[in-house]
Amino acid sequence: MGVQSTVASLWRYPVKSCRGESLERVVVEPWGVAQDRRWMVVDPAGTMVTARELNRLLVVHPTLTDDGLRLTAPGAPAVDVPVPDPAGQVPIAIWSSRLTAADAGDGAAAWLTEVLGRDVRLVHLDDPRRRPTSPTYSEPDDRVSLADGYPLLLTTAASAEAVSVAAGALVPMHRYRPNLVVEGTQAWAEDSWRRFRIGDVTFRVVKGCARCVMTTMEPDHDAGSVARGPEPTRTLARLRRFGKGVWFGVNVIPDHPLPAGATIAVGDPVEVLEAVEPGTRPIGS
C-alpha cells in the first residue's frame, strides 16, 4: 500500500503581497481560505500594487483582529485598521478584473505610504461574489477574492524538494506563497490531478501556475529588507519551462455546493478522485 498523502501546511495572506501566516486549520469558502487576500494595496487610481514592483510589501506583517487588521513593519509603530464601511466603495483594478472595494481610510493610507515610500491606499473586498474567476479555466459561478486568479494555490513538498535538489540549495516553500501544501506524493504529481478531496471539501484543479519574480525574493522580517536572487526561476527554467512560462503548483477551486463552515486541517488525508496520465503538462501551459 502506498504512502497516504496528507496536508503538510496551510497558509493565509490577509493582505495581498504582504507577509503570510501558517495555520493549523482553516475554513474554506467558495472563493478560498476564509480571510485570505481580502485586503489589497492600491495606487491612487485604484490599481493593485504588489511585491513584484514594490518588494518591501513582503515585510509588512498583517494580523487579523476582531475589528479588522493590525499592520506592523520593522521601524514603524503598529497601526490598527478597522474593517471599512462597505458603503464607501471605490473602483479597483486587479489584472483584468474591474470591480469595487471599500477604502480603508486615510490612516491606513498614510501608514503604508510612509513604510513603503510610495503613495498608496488600502482597500477591503467586503463581498468576494463581485469577482468572477477567469472564464477560460472555470465555471460561470466560480468566484475569487483578491488572489491573482483563483481561490487557492496548491503545492507539494516533493516538487519543492525536487527544485531545491536541482538548484543545489534550499528554496523554502514560503517563496511560492501557497495556501495548501501536500506531502506524501511524487514530485509533480499535482500536474495530473483533476479532482481531490480533503475532509468534506472537494476541489477541482483548473490551471497550472506560471511563476513570476516574487518567488526569487527572500524577506528579512527583522531587518525589514528583501533580498533577490536567481532561484528558483533559474532552476524552474531548466525543469519546468513550458511555452513562455515556468510552472510550479496548481490553482484549485472548491466544488459547489460547499458545506457551510467546511474546514481542513494539517494532517488531513488527501484523496485524489480524478487524475490523468502522470507526466502530463500543467493545464494552461
UniProtKB/TrEMBL annotation:
Record-given protein name: MOSC domain-containing protein
Domain MOSC: 127-273
Alphabetical list of PROSITE patterns matching this protein: MOSC
A GO MF label: pyridoxal phosphate binding
InterPro entries: MoCF_Sase_C (IPR005302), MOCOS_middle (IPR005303), Pyrv_Knase-like_insert_dom_sf (IPR011037)
Alphabetical list of PANTHER family matching this protein: MITOCHONDRIAL AMIDOXIME REDUCING COMPONENT 1, MOLYBDOPTERIN COFACTOR SULFURASE MOSC
Pfam (any one): MOSC_N
